[in-house]
Amino acid sequence: MKKLLITLFLALPAAPASSADPFDGFAARVTADNLKPFMRDLGFLLAADINHTGRSLGFSGFDVGIRDGVIPGPRSGDTVLSNTSVALPIVQAEIGMPFRLDGFIRGFDYQGFTMSGGGLKWGFTQLSDKPHAFRGMIYAAGHAGVHESFSVTSFSGGVVCSWQADVLEPFVSAAYERTRLTVRLAGDAGLIGRETTVYDPRVTVGLNIRPGQFVYMHAALSAVSSLMGFEYSLGVRF
C-alpha cells in the first residue's frame, strides 16, 4: 500500500506537464509587454518547493528529495508560454549544521533549461519531535538558470512555520522574491541584451506526510502575485 501511495504521488505532478521544451517559443514570442508576466511565471517555478517543514535538520541531519513546481497555465499577459501547464522537477539535498543551521543545494537540467541554486535555513525554534510541536525557520536562497534564449537569476527569502501532528504536518510560508532575466535571443532585436527585474511576494500552504520513519512527501498550494500553482515532493530525511 505504501509503495502504491508513493507511485501515485509521483504521477500527480508529471501528469499535466508537457514533454516538450516549455520555453522553446521564447525568442519568437517575447515582447516588451509580455516579458515581465513571463518572468513572474518563471520565478514561481525556480523558487518552488524550497521548504516542506519548519523544523531544522539538526547537526548531521540529511534530506534529499525530488521536488516539482507546477503552474496549471500561464498568468494573464504571459503569451510566451504556450503549454497549458508547465512543471520543472528539481533535485534538492540538505545537510544539518550546528546552531540549527541547514545548508542546501538544488538544481536540474531539463528540456533545454539548466538551473542550479542553494541557500541557508535557520530554525528559530528548538528541535523537537513531540506531537503538536510548533516549528519555525527563516531561509534565504539563490538560483541561476540558462536557456539558449535567456539567462535568469532568482533570490528569495522568507519564513516557514509548521505544526507536527503525528504523521501529518501542515505548514505555511511567506517569502519575497526577486527575479532578473537577460534576453539572449529574440525576434525583436531591441530586446536582445535587455535586463529586466521583477519583485513578487509568495505565500504557500501545504501538508507534509511521513508514511515511513525516514520517508516524506508533501503537497502544497502556492501563490506568487496573481498566479496560483502547486508544489510536490518525495524524499528521505533523517
CATH class categorisation: Mainly Beta
One letter per element, helices H and strands E, the order comes to: HHHEEEEEEEEEE
Strand elements, count: 10
User: Beta-sheet strand percentage?
Assistant: over 45%
Share of helix, binned = 10-25%
Gross morphology is elongated
Structural class category: mainly beta
Question: Number of DSSP helices?
Answer: 3
Domain module count? 1
Query: Main beta sheet: strand number and arrangement?
Result: 10 strands, antiparallel, barrel
* Ends apart, CA distance between termini: 22 Å
Radius of gyration: 18 Å
Highlighted features:
238 residues; mainly beta; Porin; ten-stranded antiparallel β-barrel; 3 helices; 52% strand
Description:
With 238 residues, the chain is mainly beta. It has one domain (2-237): Porin. The chain is built from three helices and ten strands, in the order αααββββββββββ. It has helices spanning 2-14, 26-29, 35-46, and strands at 62-71, 86-97, 101-110, 113-123, 134-147, 150-163, 168-183, 195-209, 215-224, 227-237. It has a ten-stranded antiparallel barrel with strand order 1-2-3-4-5-6-7-8-9-10. The longest helix has 13 residues, at 2-14. The radius of gyration is 18 Å and the shape is elongated. Residues 4-8 and 14-18 have low confidence and may be disordered.
